[in-house]
Amino acid sequence: MKKYSIRDILNRFRWHPDLDISKVEIFYVDRPRGSSKIQGQEIEKVGHKFVYLKSGMAIPHHRIFEIRYEGEVVWKKS
Length: 78
Known about the structure:
Elements: H1 6-15, E1 24-30, E2 34-39, E3 43-46, E4 50-53, E5 58-60, E6 64-69, E7 72-76
Antiparallel strand pairs: 1-2, 1-6, 3-4, 4-5, 6-7
């Protein structure tokens, strides 16, 4: 089974007509808080190494540890 990249998964939710990016939650390591969550509608762009937010913040892919869609885990760091 192919393991999809964070970029592939998030771009699918952003561009597929049957999916809703606002139903995506991204959990990531946030220093010094430990971990944080963002909603899909906060995403401006998904690059090869970072997820860029409308706020101007950039989250490195290596800090993302879980992605959920409608509350169900669709990707988890192994």
